């Protein structure tokens, strides 16, 4: 199973800000509501939602709403912002949509999503819903996009590769071990240059920040802060002295070098374990081979260690789910929404290692092995990107990918960080 959940989620050619300025409140008035049986269209993104969850959603919805049908339309993370901007403002909008947690603020602030009332919020989970994801989907004190699932990052390794090398217990040891293990054929830590998600823990653990909002509403970016620079220096050390991944590569098919035995440590979303443990000869001719019987058979995981030990603060990947403001059937859309957030449906997601929307269901994620335990530790300490409606523009302009490619190429960290901060502030304060 190829789970490149976070790759391309930021890539969009047309900025959302321009679309919104042209449309005013782009959500506009809802389409005239229909009654009786009908069709509900649910947009899910990528392959993270497993077939058994999709089947449960469709079957349960159609049993509960006699005569109505539910259609799942899978979308790609690549170009998602552009596609949603057009579709949600149009006359043929989908009814329920999945959206990346870092993108949610752009759409909630623009009026694209139907408000979830206080009573509905309590019925759907209330205080049991993942707090950080609830915040990501709120706007001006109201709820619009509730949590769908969270996926934390785990550091994967194979004892066959690691041998007698001790597992690092602090962030400094992680950096040192990566450099010590690196050879021409082995990356101590495999780190493609465009992967900025794995860099954020180094910023946070060293006391830096991504961007913070002052009392006057202006944003201050912090990659060039003292802690930010300290973290970026560690990032550059791994990228240039402990890593063989190309400096301009994306975070795609990370299981390939791992299964080739070319990786000691690999920091990736927890669900990549299924890609590593896929058969060496996939049934799908276009599928990517795994290494279930070799490096996958003794696959282990640990939470990225923090500066002073314990689990580091890591980026919380995952999605929110919302009802489109222009859904022609908000009643049926809410019926589907309730199923998506039900304990039964969310337990299916937990069964494949995704952390459910409700914290009370976290225990259903298998934590009997090191990977599950590490994922739970990381999830408990996870953080999100700045909650600005313009953060989607930062991602769409590929500013972070460009900056970390330069860092991976050995360019001066302070110069790169200062320029990145200036570019981020220009967008967030425009």
TrEMBL record:
Cleavable signal peptide: 1-26
Keywords: Signal, Transport
Alphabetical list of PROSITE patterns matching this protein: PROKAR_LIPOPROTEIN
PANTHER family, sorted: MALTOSE-BINDING PERIPLASMIC PROTEIN, MALTOSE_MALTODEXTRIN-BINDING PERIPLASMIC PROTEIN
Family according to the record: Belongs to the bacterial solute-binding protein 1 family.
Protein name: Extracellular solute-binding protein
UniProt source species: Promicromonospora vindobonensis
């Amino acid at each position: 199973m190829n789970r490149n959940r976070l790759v391309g989620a930021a890539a969009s050619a047309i900025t959302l800000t321009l679309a919104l300025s042209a449309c005013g409140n782009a959500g506009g008035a809802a389409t005239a509501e229909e009654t009786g049986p009908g069709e509900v269209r649910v947009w899910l993104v990528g392959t993270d939602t497993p077939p058994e969850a999709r089947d449960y959603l469709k079957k349960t919805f159609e049993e509960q709403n006699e005569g109505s049908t539910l259609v799942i339309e899978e979308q790609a993370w690549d170009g998602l912002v552009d596609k949603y901007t057009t579709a949600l403002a149009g006359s043929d909008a989908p009814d329920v949509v999945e959206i990346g947690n870092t993108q949610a603020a752009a759409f909630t602030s623009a009026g694209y999503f139907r408000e979830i009332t206080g009573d509905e919020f309590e019925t759907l989970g209330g205080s049991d819903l993942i707090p950080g994801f609830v915040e990501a989907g709120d706007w001006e004190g109201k709820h619009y996009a509730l949590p769908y699932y969270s996926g934390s990052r785990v550091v994967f390794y194979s004892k066959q590769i690691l041998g007698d090398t001790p597992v690092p217990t602090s962030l400094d040891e992680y950096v040192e071990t990566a450099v010590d293990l690196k050879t021409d054929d082995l990356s101590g830590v495999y780190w493609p240059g465009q992967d900025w998600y794995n860099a954020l823990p180094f910023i946070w653990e060293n006391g830096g920040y991504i961007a913070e909002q002052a009392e006057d509403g202006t944003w201050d970016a912090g990659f060039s802060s003292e802690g930010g620079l300290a973290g970026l220096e560690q990032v550059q050390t791994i990228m240039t002295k402990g890593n063989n991944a190309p400096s301009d590569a994306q975070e795609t098919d990370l299981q390939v070098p791992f299964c080739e035995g070319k990786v000691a440590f690999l920091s990736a979303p927890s669900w990549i374990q299924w890609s590593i443990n896929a058969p060496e000869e996939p049934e799908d001719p276009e599928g990517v081979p795994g290494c279930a019987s070799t490096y996958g058979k003794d696959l282990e995981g640990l939470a990225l260690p923090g500066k002073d030990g314990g689990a580091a603060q890591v980026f919380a990947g995952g999605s929110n789910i919302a009802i489109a403001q222009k859904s022609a059937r908000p009643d049926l859309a809410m019926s589907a929404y309730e199923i998506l957030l039900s304990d039964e449906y969310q337990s299916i997601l937990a069964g494949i290692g995704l952390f459910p929307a409700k914290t009370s269901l976290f225990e259903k994620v298998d934590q009997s092995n090191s990977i599950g335990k590490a994922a739970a530790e990381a999830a408990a300490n996870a953080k999100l990107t700045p909650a600005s409606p313009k953060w989607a523009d930062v991602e769409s302009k590929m500013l972070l990918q460009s900056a970390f490619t330069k860092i991976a190429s050995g360019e001066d960290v302070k110069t790169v960080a200062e320029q990145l901060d200036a570019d981020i502030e220009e967008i967030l304060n425009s």
